Amino acid sequence: MIMKHHQYLYILLGFILFSCNPGRNNNPEPFPEPEDGYPENIIFFIGDGMGPAHVTAAETVNNGLNITSLSTTGLMTTHAADRSVTESAASATAMTTGVKTNYKMLGVNPDGEILKNIFEYLHERGYATGLITTTFLQGATPAAFYAHAELRDMYEDISVQMAHSEVDVLIGGGSFWLNEREDGLNLIDTMTSRGYSYYEHINDVPLDESGKLLVVQAQYRLPGIEDDRGDYLQQALSRALSRLDKTRQPWFLMVENEHIDLRGHDNLQDEMLAEVVDLDLTVGNALSYAATNQKTLIVVAGDHETGGFSITGGNVFEGTVEGDFQGDNHTAVMVPVYADGPGASYFSGVYDNTDMFRKFTDLLKINAH
Ligand SMILES: [Zn+2]
Q1: Is the Cβ–Cβ distance between 338 and 66 less than 8 Å?
Q2: Per-residue pLDDT tens for 49-108?
């Protein structure tokens, strides 16, 4: 194909404009004041790999979900800066920094420049923060709230950043990169000397204690529900809420169930749906908490879809689902977002994953644009 000169010019102009603006939108449309008020605290649930069919199928087999009872519903696009089908690092970076980055990059833009994330803004303003996950704490989703790395699997480096972060409550797995490190450092000791109380099991954490909390319950990931993970996620939520409340500061807590994604990769439908139901039970507990602390906003979102899962049969009246997986990796379909509580109205409609950052920061009155 022969291009005319002006076509070259447009391509060049487009390239220059794109290159000059790799960061946030400097002049976004201001959100109107939320009719449902501003939250003091936010609980952000991430169902890793949870697409619309995962929620539909879990609702069928479970005869209803807490997630779908939330007052507001939206849909979110998830593409990475360099491709349509994303993964958890690029997706979480979009949500925590408001900037699209490349596949597998964490807390940095496509040029590798560090992006300030929402927790870093919140710590400056005296917020307490917490992270709960069923995978290792250095996993891409939780790590996007405290770390910056050119690649998500730089676990030793990410662990050092975690050990020196200001996050108040950390509950997950990943002791291998904390105390079996190549450099011989013991980062659990580092964290206890920084004031964290440390436990190897969530049930050992006393409910009446206050202060910073580190629970590392597995060398790598925690097991799945089918392997007796039990009520870990619900216990982690109640322990985290208790700690965060005792700070007497406003707070932001992220809770991730990574195993929805893992079982989606494995194409294990029953196990995958059990993970959605486990996340949903935890959302139910958060709703009960929010009934007593009405300044709390609850948001539930997938970070991308996993498995190309679809529902091809079954009986909705009998609670059965015949599902099918298109493949064993992620897809680019929009993921559902649900919200309830003050500011929930911001999460209706169709938007991009980078908009999550602006919704959260606007609701917490942080000028981060
Ligand atoms: Zn995945």
Answers
A1: no
A2: 999 999 999 999 999 999 999 999 999 999 999 999 999 999 999 999 999 999 999 999
Q: Which CATH architecture group holds 44-353?
A: 3-Layer(aba) Sandwich (3.40)
pTM of the model: 0.93
**How far apart are the CA of 277 and the centre of ligand 1, in A?**
18
CA of 221 from ligand 1 middle (Å) equals 14
Ligand 1 centre to CA of 141 (Å) is: 11
Eight-class DSSP state of 320: E
Domain ranges of the chain: 44-353
Residue 309's contacts (CB-CB under 8 Å, 6 or more residues apart) are: 51, 53, 54, 57, 264, 269, 272, 323, 324, 325, 326
CA–centroid distance, 31 to ligand 1, in Å, is 32
- Angle CA(104)–CA(212)–CA(275) in degrees, nearest 5? 50
Q: Are 254 and 130 in contact (CB under 8 A)?
A: yes
